[in-house]
Amino acid sequence: IALKLLSHEMVVINLDRCIYDAKVLEVNKQIDHGMFYAHKCDISDYESVKAAFEWIEEKFTSINIHINCAGVAHNLSILSDRHDATDKINSTINVNFSGAVHVTRSAFRLMSKSQDYGMIINVASIFGHSIPFPMIGNVYAATKHAVRAFSEIIRQELIVSGCDKIRVSNVSPGTVKTNVRVTGGWENTEQFYKERPFLEAKEIADVVSYLLSTPYNVNITELKIQPVGEKF
Question: What positions carry a catalytic annotation?
Fold first, then answer.
């Protein structure tokens, strides 16, 4: 997504827990460094979010586009009595939902300062529409259902507040091949992708680009995108 936005000559700010992640470094190698900024931020930590947006405000004053794309999932039953169950459940909720809420609130404040057109895009999941695998879906699916509701709530809050310049879209992808580590029933991540159809990350980036390219009076509120042949 970052590379796609950069191809449209946008300034991109990437918030990540690890700004030296391989994917972030890969982007750095491919672009003009004056257009891409990586800043450390753990969205499950409100103080980290607050500090990150203070830095953004100091350096850029305002923003126009905000994309929530952070996520985490664990192969864990909600009712599990594993010793680490509570921590993993809380981590999933804090990153996938609570973090998205607080980051969006901070982003909206800076978007409002621009007094220009803007867009909030939440990348949820097909698990926000159905729960095909309970053990994988578990609390992850619950958070993605919550993100979809959150998208619609803030869209309506903007209407009630009289703000007609900021659009809100929710994108729900099926299986996407990323650098996420897959466990639980598969020997390795490579085997996981061999057994099912998947989308490439650049195809999700094309969807984001399309949403941004629509006229300002058009708000596509919900998009599901799945690989052909996906069984759920």
Answer: 140
